[in-house]
């Protein structure tokens, strides 16, 4: 398991950081940990599964 920051996830999904923060707040993309500043960190496998699901449902 490798952890990704909000910015890394946003870049990977090609969306803005605020979108990732909203997905996390709404529990659609669940963070696995927090960094020292309290920002969420996401499991890269979870992000990949979310991307595949979103693409099947019509896009992000």
UniProtKB/TrEMBL annotation:
One of its GO terms (molecular function) is DNA binding. Signal peptide: none annotated. The lineage of its organism: Bacteria, Pseudomonadati, Pseudomonadota, Gammaproteobacteria, Alteromonadales. Residues 4-51 form the HTH merR-type domain. This is HTH merR-type domain-containing protein. GO terms for biological process: regulation of DNA-templated transcription. InterPro entries: DNA-bd_dom_put_sf (IPR009061), MerR-type_HTH_dom (IPR000551). It comes from the Bacteria.
